[in-house]
Amino acid sequence: MTVWDDLVGQDRVRESLAAAARDAAALVTAGAAGAEPPESSRMTHAWLFTGPPGAGRDTAARAFAAALQCVGPDRALGGEPGCGFCDGCHTALVGTHADVEIVRTDLLSIGVKETRELVRRAQLAPAGGRWQAIVLEDADRLTEGAGNVLLKGVEEPATRTVWLLCAPSVEDVLPTIRSRCRHLVLRTPSVDAVADVLIRRDGIEPEAARSAARATQGHIERARRLATDERARARRNTVLRLPLRVDDVGGCLRAAQELIDAAGQDAKEAAEEVDAKETEDLRAALGAQSGGRMPRGTAGAMKELADRQKRRSTRTQRDSLDLALTDLTGFYRDVLALQLGSRVQLANEDVRDALDGVAAGSTPERTLRRMEAIGACREALDRNVAPLLAVEAMAMALRAG
Ligand SMILES: [Zn+2]
Fold this sequence. Notes:
- There is one protein chain.
- With 401 residues, this protein is of the alpha/beta class.
- 59% of the residues lie in helices and 6% in strands.
- The protein is built from 16 helices and five strands.
- The chain has a five-stranded parallel β-sheet with strand order 2-3-4-1-5, with helices on one face.
- Helix 5 (112-122) links the parallel strand 2 (100-103) and strand 3 (132-136).
- It starts with 10 loop residues before the first helix and ends with a helix.
- 37% of the residues are buried.
- The mean pLDDT is 90.
- The structure holds zinc ion.
- Residues 70, 72, 83, 86, 88-89 line the site of zinc ion.
């Protein structure tokens, strides 16, 4: 195995990164020997990984960060950096390497304060004497102010610091930042490639792996969840039944309410896992006394945590709803394929009866309008329209006739 194993169907990205990691290792060797650095190098200080959700932006960035830390025995013999089993690779991959900082947010935005701290950290020399890698998994969530703070860090990098920024598309990152990054584009991996990794790495049964890979259309993480998590399967089934339930106004409103409730339930369950413990930990850290009384002056910090938990819950709900809309779009894409008689592989073969029924009862034009309604719902949610209103409007537009 190597650090690149989890990067599925991205040969060109992998080649670029492996070449950069080789040159990065040469720079370290030259530096240690007091020699001049090699004249041309494919290593650079800032990278931007873009690509559709689930293609593996974060995986690529983390693999590269690990390859930069590789100290495997083969390295001395001129082997490729990124062996996957040496101490450097291993700790970087599991997230405990001192020189690899992985920034992942569960909030809707990353603010100035947090970004300033990263930029400060970027000025430090790596503890292990190789490279310091800062992986920003949600660079598209930087506020404008935070983006400007990050720009300073990217503009004036410390000698051995590497920024690895991940975002859905280049438009999601400030032009001034992206012009300083080397840009790598990940593609949606093929259904076969995703199925293959589920079978090989996660030990999932071939039939279940292929079905999950098809249903999620190249989204690796979602495919794994679908193949392994009963709840995720149940949720998907509910969403895919929605097109059969929207024949009258009452049915539309009920279906909309159910989608919203399901998203709320997801947020509630996610919160139950972390919020209580987080609150308890902070109370203890602030010196809660027996009987639960808090010392003076700690209310602000408790309120800050409560606000943060609330924002996180909002994001979970939104992500959950977004997933439902993705499944729904996939359903109508299949319907359209059936109506047009195209010979593509259907994503939702497992609900073929429902697909056939909707396809027979409407026209391709109607299907396209329904897909547009889902897109409009998504845009409304992006504009912060109240979720229930946006989903109700969509459900009404999905109605038969
Ligand atoms: Zn290694």
